Amino acid sequence: MSSFTSLIKESWVEVTENVTWPKFTDLQSSSVLVLVASLIFALLVGVVDLAFKSGLDLFYSSF
């Protein structure tokens, strides 16, 4: 059990003293970039899905 508590204590020291955390503005700009990229990708997938649906509907209606 002492090895577990030692692990927790050493991990806390590592996180609080040795890790360099990014600034909030950097995180905010990265989050906005991910959001915009996700929206663009979702729109692209939606357009491709609509094109396939329309193409298959046209194909199946010809029989």
Automatic annotation (TrEMBL):
<keyword id="KW-0811">Translocation</keyword>
<keyword id="KW-0813">Transport</keyword>
<dbReference type="InterPro" id="IPR038379">
    <property type="entry name" value="SecE_sf"/>
</dbReference>
<protein>
    <submittedName>
        <fullName>Preprotein translocase subunit SecE</fullName>
    </submittedName>
</protein>
<keyword id="KW-0653">Protein transport</keyword>
<keyword id="KW-0472">Membrane</keyword>
<keyword id="KW-0812">Transmembrane</keyword>
<keyword id="KW-1133">Transmembrane helix</keyword>
<dbReference type="InterPro" id="IPR005807">
    <property type="entry name" value="SecE_bac"/>
</dbReference>
<dbReference type="Pfam" id="PF00584">
    <property type="entry name" value="SecE"/>
</dbReference>
<feature type="transmembrane region" description="Helical">
    <location>
        <begin position="32"/>
        <end position="52"/>
    </location>
</feature>
<dbReference type="InterPro" id="IPR001901">
    <property type="entry name" value="Translocase_SecE/Sec61-g"/>
</dbReference>
